[in-house]
Amino acid sequence: MCNLYRMTRNKDEVAKWFDAVNDLGGANFGTEVFPGYPGAVVAQGRLRQMTWGFPLVMKGKSGQPLKPKPVNNARTDKLHSFFWRHSFEERRCLIPVTVWAEAEGAKGSKTRSWLYRPDADLFAVAGVWRRSDEWGEVYSMVMTDADGAAAELHTRMPVLLADEDRGTWTDGSPEDAFALCKPWTGDLAIERTGEPWSGRGQVGLL
Q1: pTM above 0.85, yes or no
Q2: For burial by CB atoms within 10 Å, which of 21, 66, 122, 159 has the most?
Q3: How far, in Å, CA of 59 to CA of 68, rounded?
Q4: What span, in angstroms and rounded, lies between the C-alpha atoms of 19 and 4?
């Protein structure tokens, strides 16, 4: 599961890399992206700012509305469920990523371990998006079973897309896009750090 990633390239570089129109304008966001916070997404051929996580409406014990929870990861085996189906079938996107993090270590003293493709300074992660009443346009990362180096840190990992598969993910049929939802078979590297693991707000996977 991914609850933190970095995207360190500037807007013009990312737009050129993905052959997208840069719609970010004066938008600003941190190089570290947390659930519930804005990130850059390529959707419908345009580089746009969206909030990371689909809002999940929560209610208290007495039925009172609570702050929505950002569901920032979409499990591959749940893409055909009601929560994700329409977005997967109609609104798939690309998430530009430099590295993503997993928590490693004992509870209470977990540290950040970063995973990345050693052959690429920037790569695409499969995503889905939609418009929400709560946060405007939102996106979520698609997750699959972990393999290779990623399996050392977690049972799931983001769906990484080869350059030649990006168009199939965004514009292909749901069946062809779903066929891409598999573990990355290329090289992955791990950078283990002593940075304390910390997140912002509530996060979730559905």
Answers
A1: yes
A2: 159
A3: 9
A4: 25
* Cα end-to-end distance, the chain, whole Å: 11
Residue range(s) defining the domain that contains residue 121: 5-205
* Exposure string over 158-173, b if 16+ CB within 10 A, otherwise e: bbbbeeebbebbbeee
Q: What is the pLDDT of residues 152-200, one digit of tens each?
A: 999 999 999 999 999 999 999 999 999 999 999 999 999 999 999 875 5
User: Contact 100/113 with Cβ under 8 angstroms?
Assistant: no
Q: What residue ranges in the chain does DSSP mark as E strands? A: 5-6, 21-22, 32-33, 38-43, 46-52, 54-59, 65-75, 92-97, 99-104, 111-116, 123-132, 136-145, 156-158, 160-161, 189-196, 204-205
The answer to whether the beta carbons of residues 76 and 144 sit under 8 Å apart is yes
Q: How many domains in the chain?
A: 1
Question: How does DSSP classify residue 109?
Answer: S
Is the per-residue pLDDT at 203 higher than 80? no
Place of tokens 């590297």: 189
CATH number of domain containing 104: 3.90.1680.10
